[in-house]
Design a protein that fits this description.
three-stranded antiparallel sheet, 32% strand
């Protein structure tokens, strides 16, 4: 008498939090797969996956334009005008000398290429030393180095000073780039200040809110 061997194997396939269960009955006749409602579940999972991807795209865009700390706050709805918090930080404010004369003289495409190189040279040092860019204002840059603990003031301030010194050297090195051919070298001024600031949302009721 032939023995019938039956095995039930449940395989769970997770797609962005949705699970589709496949149940397989095995005997000598072969495999039988039942998966009732699988199409609906895959469609539902696809919708969830799309929403998840859209969330990450929005998250990355906000972080790129507003910063790693401010972007997620905007994404979670912390945008009411007048709201904010006090924090201790080192503020960075830098400016390009001679920008008006240079921008009046050069084609806009070349001036934008120079500004992009200028901002990237500074941003690399700011990020590398624990800071975050807040705004690009014409040829100026506003950044912040948050200080979470009172005993970290000296360390954060030292890091900000190191970032400023390295940024000055990096900007001087831009003279070798093609967009700077036949141009006088770039000269920036960096001001640093440590203290307590109000970090939040301001703006007009019908205009943009600025973190």
């Amino acid at each position: 008498m032939a023995a019938v061997i039956t095995s039930r194997i449940a395989a769970s396939c997770a797609i962005s939090g949705m699970a589709s269960v496949l149940r397989c009955d095995h005997d000598r006749a072969g495999w039988r797969v039942s998966n009732a409602g699988h199409g609906d579940r895959v469609h539902h999972a696809t919708i969830i996956t799309d929403r998840h991807n859209q969330w990450w795209i929005t998250h990355n865009v906000l972080c790129a334009y507003l910063g790693a700390n401010t972007g997620p706050k905007v994404l979670t709805g912390q945008i009411r005008r007048g709201t904010g918090m006090e924090l201790t930080a080192v503020l960075w404010s830098s400016d390009l000398r001679g920008f008006t004369e240079r921008s009046d003289r050069l084609p806009s495409e070349r001036m934008i290429a120079i500004l992009n190189a200028l901002f990237e040279a500074q941003a690399a040092e700011i990020r590398g030393h624990g800071g975050e860019m807040l705004k690009f204002i014409g040829d100026g840059l506003l950044a912040i180095f948050p200080i979470a603990e009172t005993d970290a003031v000296a360390a954060i301030a030292t890091a900000a000073v190191a970032a400023a010194r390295n940024a000055l050297a990096a900007v001087a090195g831009l003279a070798r780039r093609p967009e700077m051919d036949d141009e006088p070298p770039l000269d920036i001024v960096v001001a640093l200040h440590v203290g307590t600031v109000h970090y939040g949302n301001i703006g007009a009721t019908t205009g943009s809110i600025s973190p």
